[in-house]
Design goal:
The complex is a heterotrimer of chains A (461), B (156) and C (428). Chain A starts with a helix and ends in an 11-residue tail after the last helix. Chain A is built from 23 helices and 6 strands. Chain A has a two-stranded antiparallel ribbon with strand order 1-2. In chain A, strands 3-4 form a two-stranded antiparallel sheet. By secondary structure, chain A is mainly alpha-helical. Chain B has one helix at 12-40, and strands at residues 51-53, 65-68, 73-78, 81-86, 97-99, 102-104, 111-112, 118-120, 129-134, 140-148, 154-155. Chain B starts with 11 loop residues before the first helix and ends with a strand. Chain C is mainly alpha-helical and 428 residues long. Chain C is built from 17 helices and 2 strands. Chain C starts with a helix and ends in a 22-residue tail after the last helix. Classes of the chains: A mainly alpha (461), B alpha+beta (156), C mainly alpha (428). Chains in contact: A-B, A-C, B-C. Chain A binds chain B through residues 1-6, 9-10, 12-13, 16-17, 19-20, 23-24, 26-27, 30, 65-66, 68, 70, 79, 88-91, 105-106, 109, 111, and chain B through 1-2, 5-6, 8, 10-11, 14, 17-18, 20-25, 27-28, 31-32, 35, 38, 43-44, 46, 49, 52-53, 135-137, 139.
Chain lengths: 461, 156, 428
Amino acid sequence: MDGSMRKFYGGFTALGLLVGVLVIVAYYRDQHREWMIYQRRYLQEEVRRAATPPQRVLAERTPIQIRQILLPELGRVDRCTTCHLAVEDPSYGGYPQPLAYHPLHDQHPFDRFGCTICHRGQGRATTVAAAHGHVPHWDAPMLPLKYTEASCGQCHQAADNPAAPALARGEQVFEASGCRGCHKLGGVGGVVGPDLDKVGARRSPEWLKAHFLAPATVTPGSGMPPQKFSAPDLEAITLFMLSQTGETVPGFYASMKVIPSAAVGRRLFQQKGCIGCHSLNGQGGKIGPALDDVGLRRSPEWMVAHFRDPQAVSPGTVMPRFGFTEGEARALTDFLLHLRDQQVALSLPSLMGPVERGREVFRTYGCIGCHGPDGKGGVPNPNAKTAEQVPALTYVADGYTKAELAKRILGGQRDITPLDPKRPPPPLYMPAWGGIIKEAEVDDLVAYLFSLKPKGEDLGF
Amino acid sequence: MSPPASEQPPSRRAFFELTFGWLAATFAVVASSVAAVKFLTPNVLYEPSLRFKAGRPGDYADGSVTFLEDERVFIVRQGNTYRCLSAICTHLGCTVNRAGAGYHCPCHGSVFNAQGQVEGGPAPRALEWFLVTLSKDNRLLVDKTERVAADKYLVL
Amino acid sequence: MNAPLPKRLWQWFVRSRVGRSVFRVGLPESNLERSQAMVSSFLLHLQPAKVSRHALKAGTTLGLGLISLYLFLILIGTGLLLMFYYVPSTDRAYDAMKDLQFVVSAGLVVRNMHRWAAHLMVLFVLLHLCRVFFTGAYKRPREFNWLIGTALFLLTLGLSFTGYLLPWDQLAFWAITVGTNIAGYAPVVGPRLKFLLLGGNVVGQEALIRFYALHVIVLPAVAGLLVAIHLWRVRKDGGLSRPDEPADLVEQVEQSRLPTNKTYGLMELARGTTPLVGRNPEDDVFSWPHLVFREVLLFLAVVAVVMFLAVFWNAPLEQVANPVHPPNPAKAPWYFLGLQELVSYSAFWGGVVVPGLLVAVLVLLPYLDRGRAGVGRWFARERVVANTVFALCLAAAIVLTVIGSLFRGPNWSWQVPWQPPPAAGGEP
């Protein structure tokens, strides 16, 4: 027998078998994917629970296949229901995952919202690790359940959502702590620190918390002053930061931004300057009718229609069309109906004096973050010549004229004189607020700052 | 290398080995072809699902016929009964329009009555009715894979 | 002889009317039939009816060219499958990758096979080039085939490079950004070439669709054509180079003379040399089965290796491409890392002079190095200078590539190999 031929036949057989085995391995893996185990388990359970023979047949005939929720508007495909098969079935309440029932889907039906818009994770994935997002190269792992509330902020305004109280609190903490003094959010704020518009998509809750308490430990060289948040405040502002993903939701989802409520209506009422023409409690303009008892005169439907398009229900009215959305119109209506039941004390900007308005400006732009509550100072700024602190503002009235102070605010001061030129320069500085704080607001702000000087002085207006 | 004697026919044992090798190779080729067909068979679809939820029963007014664009069906409510009618003409698959109480196909002029039965034009069969059930979260559940008789209602 | 059933079935089929129309010859039994089998089959006629024992020895070529060809075939097969799911759009390309991984049957394995075969092809084409150099096989009359081979080497790099972008993940996006910027360093044509390649100034939708078109049709079509010419020229240039090549071979091939001392029989209508010219018939064996069986065996081996790699090691897929957050360091595909390392020293020398010189030398080589000594032998003593220079260049390229791949960390500074990747950057 020819040796080379024998070698050939042997090699041919061996390699043919090897390729065959590899094909079998690949095929076996394809037929035994992780999700199939869960789906079989669910179908067995369905068969077990079937009360009638047709139900049993239905359960037995259900194909093992990937299930998905298509969300073209959101650019998402969520295959979570491939394993979490009973999310909509209340009879699975209390079952262990992945077969647990998910309550609260009445307002957010899953076929419209999917899962990842709230929980994050990797919707297209079909393995546990990859779908939950705890794998390399996936930046949006599932939010821990206690932070899921952050996702409400993607579509709804944080402050308006009665179902997300911690998120609303987080926003309050954010505004009250003066974060905007250094950071921009939604285009408003200082330029000392980075923008926060997408911070929630990049940072984990753990990172954020560590960062608030001791910024330099997670971001070496950070000049951000450590924040002294109480434990609930820390959770709340972490939640609020997580809600800032920079992701915009389109169409239907965006239209749900405003959850109509009296509080939203009240804020709209203030923002849109309704008081310029209408009066409440005898305060305000006389061009339009007083609104104290409008709830007695008009039906809610009429009011909603009126806000959407005044001409439609009151032909010839001089009231302009403000372009309120349905939600906003309903919020305003709520607010005015609310008036009928109980008198609401309003603090409308147009009714305030310059000092009060200035205090609002001081709060709105986060001056408090560096200059402290009421401008009393005390915030550390290492190596600054002013006692290594950001200067207090209590006595600015003595050092500046009003024009000088306004110029100083608008122009800022990039270079802070160091205490020791050899050490790194002070991290905090005064951003130029020109173009961010509006002209009229600057005058109010200056008036407020001048009012900080303790009693007995002529405030000058 | 072997001498030219190698051009003798292979021995019997070698031939069995060869046959075995061919079998393995044939298996690999067939398995790869099957795998390619499986590969090309989609496991998920990006078209509207054949089983879908059509919202709450209360979303439909009594006596209304509502067209669902994506799924190309009509939801018909009469009193507390619900049915689902295909909007796909049985002639050549155009989408029919409502016309009076019945339906009219714009492509070749087929006319159907309110029950979906052919009243004119080239359509060979009546429009199809699909199974409507109530999902566990109380929404209308349409299953376009299950055809039912025109007089089968979901009664609530 | 009472043949076993499969053989009898096969012979019955081959001798049937249908079988004869397909195979014409069937399983050859005689030497005449062995020749006929080769010339009458489309798939086999690229090869001669008889080959020299020298060419069949594993050590002669190591099968490197064939391996490259088989990898190319695997790439075409798996690539065609992938095309059914891939969408060259910045919105959907990455999602298509995820779907291949998570929902398509065998999607991941097919993608892995494509990826591994692509890497291997770059490697084996390069090894094939080295083999041809070290055996002096590019000399007359095979100069032109060396040129085609060089073009095929560059096309292989181009195919791999254009395919690199298609997954549209961070790895793809930044490797192509870095790679095209290296191309941009070329004088005069560089910026223009980069602009043309990307269809703009940055990697985006236009670049993706251009790379896609190049990757799935333009480059494979050109490469396929050149492969055909490459194989054809191997035969027309007198088969594989061998140490005892007759002196008149070159003349014959170059002047396209039909041999006058032969009858124009079965094998000899073709231009150029015949398998028998100038050779001792004792040195030749029939291609069927000696060559064909070896080829089948090698093909199976290549498929087995690629499948083995594909089943057990996944192709990488990072985050979706994000032009705002470059990884640090952003690296080109591995076969360009030597270049990237050079560019890090000097954009002009590394990006222009060295690669330009290398390609120029590769192209001109057979016309510069015209000595006839040492053809068909590995590391021939007569070619010690050329071989040493080539080996040094090769070693330098390998060292640079290894440094660029393994020893360069964030900011292209030195690092110990196999560091865990640094955590995603600090404050943006």
